[in-house]
């Protein structure tokens, strides 16, 4: 009933053949060794789930030792880094909306005097809470930071303020996501990661397939320009990307109840730029990859830093500066800011522009590279 | 412009690393001719054809295709040349009609529907327009590929081993079609390994190790080989042993059995006759002096050139 018996020599023959083929495919071999090394070094050092030195804007209308002590205390806590000082409340809102700062601290006029009287003046701390993970630890430490920065000043006649409730009425405003719902942050972000993965892989494979199947030779022998091939190859995928977006937004709003505060038209501008930028990356990979397997590997090589270093999985500001520089180069980083900005914050086109143009620069650079890499001959 | 030779190249050279694949090739092909391109595997036929249609940039030499420079006017050449690749290179996941439509659109042909319909009719594929190209048999794939590369009515047709792996009847029909196209004024350069196909060409060029060894009509190529041939037939067993005996004798360069007949050839007439002399009067064997075949001539040319 049973077939021929298992034989070691046949197994050995298969294993030896597989090893020979593995060694022949240089790129795959390099990737197998390189990917773990690069990723360990990159992500091991870059990722930090406890972000510190978060940029903070301060608007202080009070010049008492108390308010100065609080600002200094925030800085020394290492959670906050005073990046901006302004006197304009509108400017404060704008910086939060654009994501230039993570926190905005407002100290009202007469803060010091009210504190000395024991009136418990209000100290307003506004957080950009689109990503609850980025602000959580800092806000958790806030009470203690304020208390310990004030306590050296509360001696003598003010010592009574040390007892009882905090001398300051600390008001924390979690903007854009007051309940700290993780889905509000993750679901729009998923749109970016899903698009990155599908757009890059689909285009990288589409062009590599022509080479693998031998149809490229026929295509090259006919009068057609590289840009015509590139745009013609990418155009159908823009439509595919559009359909994916509709599905994801539909799911996000109905299933996860993610708000859509901003203008869908503004989001579309960001989406289109982002989709085309990813398609260009896929096309570039396809001009380098020898076969579909390599195209797939390159796509993953690009995809991993995209999800880990863009602020999708871990707070962007938790990464060291060098890692943030790498992150800034990735289109997903900017797209996440656009999509969260429009859906959660209701940002207008002008607010999203600081993240649109880097994607355009990326798109331009990658397209130029791809078109120059694309060979009109078989050389 | 139309008086220019279809192909005229001088000193065409292509290297891959240290390996010279095409070495100083000179070739002229007059308009309206069917020009055979022969040579062993790896002799540089495909590379030469690819350089002619702008798919590869030559490392040395100059030349024109339809009066246009192969280095600088590849774009113009591509408009007027039809190239059929060795491997089927249309889209297997498109139907026959969709493939032809794609090609017609790329060339921006007027009356696309009419042209495609006519090509399908000519192919005899009208009833199978909806069939995926990948599901066609080898012979049909090759006919479809030919139809696709003549759709834009090129002046020059470059065919790279178009009939490899195709059955004799399909080959015969394919060559009838080639002759029909040539009658209409099209120039054809076709590479092949089949001697019967070479004999259907007006002229042939023989390439080995990247060098052109012979060019001319079939008779001219045989004559330039300077080969002399005797045919000997007899009982099968005797012919088999005779082949071994003759192969070791000086003067016999080639001994090739064809069933019960041996083709014995050598470049020196006297030496060849001296070599076979002891066997001439052996009973049961019949000897005739004959023209060498094209295949004999080619194998002689090939062995005479160091690799």
Number of domains of chain B: 2
Fourth-level CATH superfamily of the largest domain in chain B = P-loop containing nucleotide triphosphate hydrolases
The rounded distance between the terminal residues' Cα atoms of chain A is 55 Å
Strand order of the largest sheet of chain B: 6-7-8-3-9-10
Total number of beta strands of chain B: 14
Q: List how many beta strands of chain A DSSP finds.
A: 5
Distance between the termini of chain B: 39 Å
From the alpha carbons, calculate the radius of gyration of chain B and give it in angstroms: 23 Å
Largest sheet geometry of chain A: 5 strands, mixed
Largest sheet of chain B: 6 strands, mixed
How would you state the average pLDDT of chain A, rounded? 89
Helical/strand content category of chain B: alpha/beta
The third-level CATH topology of the largest domain in chain B is: Rossmann fold
Shape of chain B: globular
Strand content of chain B: 25-35%
H/I helix tally of chain B:
11
- Unreliable segments of chain B (pLDDT under 50, ≥5 consecutive)? none
- Structural class, judged by helices and strands of chain A? alpha/beta
Number of domains of chain A: 2
| Percentage of residues in DSSP E strands of chain A | 5-15%
Q: Share of helix among residues of chain A?
A: 55-70%
How would you describe this structure to a colleague?
Chain B: Pfam families: ABC_tran. Chain B: Keywords: ATP-binding, Nucleotide-binding. Chain B: Residues 7-234 form the ABC transporter domain. The complex is a heterodimer of chains A (379) and B (307). Chain A has 379 residues and is an alpha/beta fold. Chain A folds into two domains: 54-175, abc type-2 transporter like fold, CATH 3.40.1710; 182-373, no CATH class. Chain A has 14 helices and five strands. Chain B is globular, with a radius of gyration of 23 Å. Chain B folds into two domains: 32-51 and 74-222, Rossmann fold; 228-291, 2-Layer Sandwich (Alpha-Beta Plaits). Chain B is built from eleven helices and 14 strands. The chains are: A alpha/beta (379), B alpha/beta (307). Chains A and B meet through helix 8 of A and helix 2 of B.
């Amino acid at each position: 009933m049973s077939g021929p018996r298992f034989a070691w020599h046949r197994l050995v023959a298969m294993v030896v053949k597989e090893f020979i083929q593995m060694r022949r495919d240089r790129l795959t071999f390099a990737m197998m060794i390189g990917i773990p090394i690069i990723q360990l070094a990159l992500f091991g050092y870059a990722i930090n789930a406890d972000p510190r030195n978060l940029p903070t804007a301060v608007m202080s209308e009070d010049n008492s030792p108390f308010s100065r002590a609080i600002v200094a205390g925030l800085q020394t806590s290492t959670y906050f880094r005073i990046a901006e000082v302004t006197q304009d409340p509108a400017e404060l809102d704008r910086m939060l909306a654009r994501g230039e700062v993570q926190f905005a601290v407002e100290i009202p006029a007469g803060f010091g005097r009210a504190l000395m009287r024991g009136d418990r003046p209000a100290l307003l701390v506004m957080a950009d809470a689109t990503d609850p993970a980025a602000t959580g630890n800092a806000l958790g430490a806030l009470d203690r930071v304020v208390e310990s920065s004030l306590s050296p000043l509360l001696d003598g006649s003010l010592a009574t303020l040390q007892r009882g409730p905090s001398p300051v009425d600390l008001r924390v405003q979690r903007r854009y996501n007051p309940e700290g719902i993780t889905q509000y942050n993750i679901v729009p972000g998923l749109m970016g990661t899903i698009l990155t993965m599908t757009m890059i892989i689909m285009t990288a494979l589409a062009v590599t397939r022509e080479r693998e199947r031998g149809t490229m030779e026929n295509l090259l022998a006919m009068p057609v320009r590289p840009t015509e091939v590139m745009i013609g190859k990418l155009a159908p995928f823009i439509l595919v990307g559009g359909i994916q977006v509709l599905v994801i937004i539909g799911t996000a709003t109905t299933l996860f109840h993610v708000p859509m505060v901003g203008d869908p038209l503004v989001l579309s501008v960001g989406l289109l730029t982002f989709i085309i930028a990813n398609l260009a990356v896929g096309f570039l990979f396809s001009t380098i990859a020898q076969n579909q397997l390599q195209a797939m590997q390159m796509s993953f090589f690009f995809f991993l830093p995209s999800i880990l270093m863009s602020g999708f999985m871990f707070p962007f500001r938790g990464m060291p500066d060098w890692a943030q520089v790498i992150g800034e180069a990735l289109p997903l980083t900017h797209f996440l800011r656009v999509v969260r900005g429009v859906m959660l914050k209701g940002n207008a086109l002008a607010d999203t522009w600081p993240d649109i143009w880097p994607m355009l620069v990326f798109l331009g650079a990658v397209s130029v590279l791809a078109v120059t890499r694309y060979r009109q001959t078989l050389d | 412009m139309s008086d220019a030779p279809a192909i005229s190249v001088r000193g065409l050279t292509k290297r891959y690393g240290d390996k010279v694949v095409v070495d100083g090739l000179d070739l002229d092909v007059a308009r309206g001719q069917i020009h055979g391109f022969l040579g062993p595997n790896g002799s540089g036929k495909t590379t030469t054809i690819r350089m002619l249609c702008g798919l590869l940039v030559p490392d040395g030499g100059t030349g024109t295709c339809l009066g246009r420079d192969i280095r600088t006017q590849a774009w113009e050449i591509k408009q007027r040349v039809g190239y059929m690749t060795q491997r089927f290179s249309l889209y297997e996941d498109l139907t026959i009609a969709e493939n032809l439509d794609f090609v017609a659109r790329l060339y921006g042909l007027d009356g696309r529907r009419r042209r495609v319909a006519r090509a399908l009719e000519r192919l005899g594929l009208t009833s199978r327009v909806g069939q995926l190209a990948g599901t066609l048999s080898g012979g049909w794939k090759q006919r479809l590929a030919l139809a696709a590369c003549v759709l834009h009515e090129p002046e020059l047709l470059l065919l790279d081993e178009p009939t490899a792996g195709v059955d004799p009847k399909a080959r015969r029909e394919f060559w009838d079609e080639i002759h029909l196209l040539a009658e209409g004024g099209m120039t054809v350069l076709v590479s092949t390994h089949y001697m019967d196909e070479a004999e259907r060409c007006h002229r042939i060029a023989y390439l080995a190790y990247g060098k052109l060894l012979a060019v001319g009509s079939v008779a001219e190529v045989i004559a330039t080989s300077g080969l002399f041939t005797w045919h000997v037939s007899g009982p099968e067993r005797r012919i088999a042993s005779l082949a071994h005996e003759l192969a070791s004798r000086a003067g016999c360069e080639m001994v090739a059995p064809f069933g019960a007949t041996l083709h014995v050839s050598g470049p020196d007439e006297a030496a060849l006759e001296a070599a076979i002399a002891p066997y001439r009067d052996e009973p049961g064997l019949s000897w005739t002096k004959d023209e060498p075949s094209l295949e004999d001539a080619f194998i002689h040319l090939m062995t005479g050139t160091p690799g």
